[in-house]
Amino acid sequence: MKNTILLADGDRAVRRMLSRLLAEENYFVVSAQDGEEMLNAWNHSPVDLVLLDLDVPEKNGWELFQQFSARHPAVPIIVITSQPNQIFPALASGVGALMEKPLDLPKLLRVIRDLVNEPSETRRARMEGRPVEFRYLPPKQNESVEVR
Questions:
Q1: Which CATH number fits domain 4-147: 3.40.50.450, 3.40.50.2300, 3.30.230.80, 3.40.1280.10?
Q2: CA 77, CA 112: separation in Å to the nearest integer?
Q3: What is the pLDDT of residues 66-112, one digit of tens each?
């Protein structure tokens, strides 16, 4: 059975490219072009992971994160952004990973696999602010930085 990923990104080309890549990796992808579509997508297809661009149209990305994670605290969320200085809000929010653009696709795929297979207790601990692994993937660096 395929894991379902909700991909929320305002850029059509990015959505198309990531959807193809994830499909090739045997994921089922539900695409959303804005915040409303993202929040409504859950009603049609429960998801195993969310890829959320902070720059989605019509809503603030962090507000979307809070709304979705309040409804579905066990679903891991990877925040993708081109905005600088988002690591501290990401750490404080309980997000599973923060990845800055331009995206390193092999690293993204590895983090998706890790988070989809992560125990739900770890996800809940992250949302409750307890210390667990956090993945920060800055652009143009050879290795990810893991903050504990």
A1: 3.40.50.2300
A2: 9
A3: 988 888 888 999 999 988 889 889 888 889 999 998 999 999 999 99
